[in-house]
Amino acid sequence: MTVTIYDVAREAGVSMATVSRVVNNNPNVKPQTRKKVFEAIERLGYRPNAVARGLASKKTTTVGVVIPDISNSIFAEVARGIEDIANMYHYNIILCNADKKKEKEIRVINTLLEKQVDGLLFMGGVVTEEHIQAFRTSSVPVVLCGTKDENQAMASVDIDHEAAAFDAVNVLIEAGHRDIAMISGTLQDPANGFARYQGYKRALETAGIPVRDEYVRIGNYRYESSVDAVNYFLELSPRPSAIFSATDEMAIGAIHTIQDNGLRVPEDIAVISVDNIRMASMVRPTLTTVAQPMYDIGAVSMRLLTKLMNKESTENMQVILPHEIINRHSVKARA
User: For residue 48, is the peptide bond before it cis, meaning its omega torsion is within 30 degrees of 0?
Assistant: First the structure.
C-alpha cells in the first residue's frame, strides 16, 4: 500500500502539519524533530505526492518544454542549457517532442497546460496565430526559445538569424566568390528559412552581386534534402563556386555530395553554414560555420522564465544573443 503523510506522522510521533513543514523545508522546525521525521520517511520509503503539494501551493515546480525534433542534435544542446538552469532553481522539466507539426505543437501545449505546469518554453519554427491564442489562454508565463513571434509580443531568446546569414555569406564574398548558391529552409520559417534567406540576399545585394533564383533551393534542414539541391547546382552553368547552407546538417550533406561527384571542398566549391553542431568539426574538411550559442539560448530562456514565474522585474523581454563565425577548412580564399 502507498505510504501516506499520516503514516509518517504516526511513525515519527508528530503531527501531519509537522511532516508537511519538514517536507517543504520550512525553517520553523526543531533540528531533532526534523531528524526524527526524515528517519521515519527513510524507514517507510515515503515519497511526497507532488500533485497534492501542487494543489495546496498552486505551484508544481514543473516547466513544460516543447521541442520540435528530439532527434536533431542542435536541440539537445538547448535542452541541456534549460535543464541545468532548471535544476539550479529547483524546477523539474517535462520535455515533449512535437515533430515540427503545428497540430501536434498546439496539442502538446494544451496538454502541458492541463498538467498545471508553472511555465512553458516553446522551441519551434513558425509561431502562428493559433500558437499565440494557445499561449494567451495560459495562466502561466511562456518564453519562446530559439524563435520569436512576428510581432515580438512574446518573451523570447534567440540570435539575429538575418545578421548571422549576412555574416556567413560575406565570408564567401571576402574569399573571392561571386557565384554563391543557397540551400535554404522553408521560407515560411521566420528564422532558419526566411530570415537566413534575407541575410543571404542582403549580402549579395550589398556586394553588387545579382541574386539568381536558380541559385536558391529549399531544403527541409536534413542531410538528404541537400543531396538533391547540390546535384541540381552541379548541372547549372555557371556552376556555383560556393554554397551557403541554412543549417550545418544540410551543409554536411552538401560536402559529401560534392565529394561524391569527384569535386573538392573548398578548392572547387566552398561551403559555409549556420549552427555549429558537433559534427561540423568532425566532417572532412571541417565546416566553417556561424555558431549559435545553443546552450546559452536554452539557459537564458529558462532563466527568463524563472523571472516571469517568480514575478521578478525583467528589463528585456526579447533577448538577442551574439553569434560567432567559426573559421575551419571548408572555405578558403580563391586563387
Answer: no
Within a domain: 307: yes
Do 143 and 182 lie in one domain? The reply is no
Asked whether residue 29 falls in the same domain as residue 130, the answer is: no
Q: Check whether 55 has a pLDDT greater than 70.
A: no
319 band by pLDDT with thresholds 50, 70 and 90: very high
pLDDT, tens digit, for every residue of 101-143? 888 999 999 989 888 899 999 987 788 888 888 888 888 999 9
Q: Which is nearest to 329 in space by CA: 277, 283, 297, 279?
A: 283
Global pTM?
0.81
Is residue 30 assigned to a domain? yes
Residues 183 and 276 in one domain: yes
Q: Considering its fold, how many domains does the chain have in total?
A: 3
CATH number at residue 318: 3.40.50.2300
Does the residue 331 lie in any domain?
Answer: no
Q: What is the residue range of 254's domain?
A: 161-291
